[in-house]
Amino acid sequence: MARIGVFICHCGSNIAGTVDIPRVVAEAQKLPMVVHAEDNEYTCSEVGQRSLREAIQEHRLNRVVIGACSPRMHENTFRNTVASAGLNPYLLEMANLREHASWVHGDQREAATVKAIDLIRAAVAKVARAQPLFARQIGVTKRALVIGGGIAGIQCALDIANAGFEVVLVERTPSIGGRMAQLDKTFPTLDCSACILTPKMVEVGQHPRIRLLTYAEVKEVRGFVGNFEADILQKARHVDHDKCLGCGICWQKCPARAPSEFDMGVGQRTAIYIPFAQAVPGKPVIDREHCRYQQYLEWQRAGAEGKKPPECRICEKLCPVGAIDWEQRDEMITEEFGAIVVATGYKTFDHSVYGEYGGGRYPDVITSLQLERLMSASGPTLGEVTRPSDGQPPKTVVFISCVGSRDDSVGRPYCSKVCCMYLAKQSIMLKEHDPEVQSYIFYIDIRAGGKNYEEFVRRAQEEAGTVYIRGRVSKTYPEKGKLIVWGEDSLMGRPVQIAADLVVLATGIEPSEGAIELAQTLHISYDVHSFLVEAHPKLRPVETMTDGVFLAGTAMGPMDIPDSVAQGSAAAAKVCGLLSKDTLALEPMVANVNAVKCVGCLLCQQVCPFKAIDTETLRDGRIVVRINEGLCKGCGLCVSACRPGAMNLRGFSNEQLLAQVKALTR
Amino acid sequence: MSASSYAYYPGCALQGTAREYDVSTRQVCRRLDIELQELKEWACCGASSAHSLDRRLAVALPARELAIAEATGLPLVVACAMCYSRLRFAAHELEDEAKLREISSLIERECKNTTQVWHLLQVLDARDIPIARPLRGLRVACYYGCLLVRPTDITHFDDEDNPQVMDGLMHRAGAETVEWAFKTECCGAGMPFARRDIVLKLSHRILAQARGAGADCLAVACPMCHSNLDMQQLNMKSVFKDDFQIPVLYFTQLLGLALGFSPKELHINKHFVDAMPLLRGKGLA
Fold this sequence. Notes:
The complex is a heterodimer.
Chain A: E1 4-9, H1 13-16, H2 21-29, E2 34-40, H3 46-58, E3 63-68, H4 71-84, E4 92-96, H5 98-102, H6 109-128, E5 136-139, E6 143-147, H7 151-162, E7 166-170, H8 178-182, E8 185-186, E9 191-192, H9 193-206, E10 210-213, E11 216-224, E12 227-234, H10 249-253, E13 257-259, E14 268-270, E15 272-273, E16 285-286, H11 292-301, H12 314-318, E17 331-337, E18 339-342, E19 346-348, E20 365-367, H13 368-375, E21 396-403, H14 419-433, E22 438-443, H15 453-462, E23 467-470, E24 473-479, E25 482-489, E26 494-500, E27 502-507, E28 509-511, H16 515-522, E29 549-551, H17 561-579, E30 583-586, E31 591-593, H18 603-607, E32 613-617, E33 623-627, H19 637-641, E34 647-649, H20 654-664
Parallel strand pairs in A: 1-2, 1-3, 3-4, 6-7, 6-18, 7-10, 18-29, 20-27, 21-22, 21-27, 22-23
Antiparallel strand pairs in A: 5-30, 8-9, 11-12, 12-17, 13-14, 15-16, 19-28, 24-25, 25-26, 31-34, 32-33
Chain B: E1 5-9, H1 19-31, E2 35-38, H2 47-53, H3 55-72, E3 76-78, H4 81-93, H5 97-107, E4 117-119, H6 120-125, E5 139-143, H7 152-155, H8 165-172, E6 176-177, H9 196-212, E7 217-220, H10 223-231, H11 233-240, E8 248-250, H12 251-259, H13 276-281
Parallel strand pairs in B: 1-2, 1-3, 3-4, 5-6, 5-7, 7-8
Helix pairs in contact in B: 1-12, 2-3, 3-4, 3-5
């Protein structure tokens, strides 16, 4: 026999100001199986909780209804309270008298009171049929997967590994380092980007607890928190990294050339290559598309028609340790993990939609990331900034900000956040490279929120003499060896025309290629711009709605290096918190199936958004479904889809819900 | 677009100042077996005036032409860039059903807004063109003006900064086209009477750019652009002391030459800047 206690919370005046509390208590006392009803000023307070515990013991209550706020606020609090009084925590039901009654019927005392009584009656009917539930304990694989080897992923991997856990760091390109490795200097301190990054890269490469998989991609992830299984594709490098010493003779002698991805196309690399001098690992890969021997093999496979490409194989002939391996194939590696961090970073906006800026049409219109490579001492021009068209040093440089940012017409309404700062930086650096350079920056607003950021912009204006022009550019065209830039000075209210040697487009930030596919295999959400979505924008900034999967860096949205590093560390702290547990308690409010009723139609499998439904074959050959309790989120879709009524949701059983509805519609 | 019969809306400019555009259009289409059925009782599209005075009128006038064309059941082809712009604009506005009802009752004609509106460039671009006399050695600056390409969402024509349709046709006619950046810059439009200084400045810039890019002549697809670029060269001479003498031809005239028509049949002799010395020099006349 159920002995139910009802506790009505005033929530100060939040509920009591509208709802007639004594009347609700009096009505509650009349309900079947209710043996005790009381009200408290704040049930969540120490006093309120003590009163709850005492009442459970005094009245030998075995079910509790709390009429207060949303269960999202305090259900956990009260579950702990009733558990401390010796009750199963799932024998508690909350009636939301605040959000569902008092707050939405502020000036209607009678209606709110009647509704509150209804809600209490429904909750009593439901809790009367509640069963005790017990959280299942599962083990935790004490190894983390970090996807993406940019600064966020590097920081995260190092923090996790230094806390004593194993990490597998997967990077798609041949080296870790990410965008930060491409930068010349960092704002606002003008630290050399590579100088502060490479020690961390080396630490990753040498760390005994980090296994680095470069030139590799995560293809599929199965499982659930503490128990993930990931398929990682290791692309064929055609270089045996166990043998390779990284001596460099192969990439010095390779005759094939390709545009360098690392140099954003302003420089070239060979077909066997490391992306940059400080690459980690410092061992090369062979790019099959541009390798002459691979082209020769491809020509053979295609029937040996047309001109025969050279067989080359120079790298193989020169390699002192015989590390070139033409037989190497792509390989799928499957590993188990307890937690996953997604730090897949960004790429820059494709500016070709802005025909008026002339990017792609005129060689001296470049992107800011290309300028970084031209300014970098390790870049293709060894730090000499020159015009791509004629190799001359530019004297007048026009920067155009917000190229693919803050522009709804190209589907990019958001601010890319870092551009204002790197434009200031680049204009300062250009002046330092060559005092004769005059920079102009067309801007919409100067966004310099951050420690020492505003001061840095002032430095660009006052020390480097950068001219800031508020307005947009309408046209760029070549004339007599210059690029004529037409724009509007919206503060002066007049058109401006600048004859520039170089035009630099501040292309905005957008998520990396493949972010959506990865999000789909991980069951994490992404927004309309394909940025990954955090569990809560304020309070759970590096978590996702999928337990055990965390986020860091620009995969989530535009941010600068300090923010990415902070997020990498934050995600690492979350991972360590998870991996430090030996077991995890699984939420018991999940679906369960009555195999006797299941007809194996598998409709539930189709509707399940979490892939939590497996099948099994019984001894009599019948196929029925089985719930993977680690994956099930208790959404109840399968229950409503189940035609024979074999599905049930613990804590929200059909019997409970029907009783609740019946009580409401009495 | 590959139909062989089209409803043809000449528009008023092609009846007056741009007769040569109309004549050359008809010649070219006849040679290419494109039947042009001139709209019955066609009237003004509203041009540059209507939409600066009355927004309803700016839709109603071209909507009337759309309704007349709809009754023929044929796709509509226009040569004038301004008419094209107004008709496309009206078709865009009439996608709103309430607007369609309102305008239909205003023009006292049933209009379902089903007429396909094409510019002549688009129609010719999709056809085989049997070239009889390639325009070898002629360097053409294709000038599209603003009305064909903007706003892109409404005109659905081509790239708004660097369109290619006319360039492609000129290549097929055997001419060279110059790479230049002023294909769609404003020529000053309908302002030569109100603000001749602006028109001269803008048109001068376009001609200077075309000349700088090495063009022998300009090809245009808009009567208004034509009059600014051709007729105003005399005034530019007095204001800027810059005597271009650069012929400005309709693309249909150049295409007509390549199809084997004589300059006279195409009214090439009707321009202010005489194109004949150039054509003779290139052995094209």
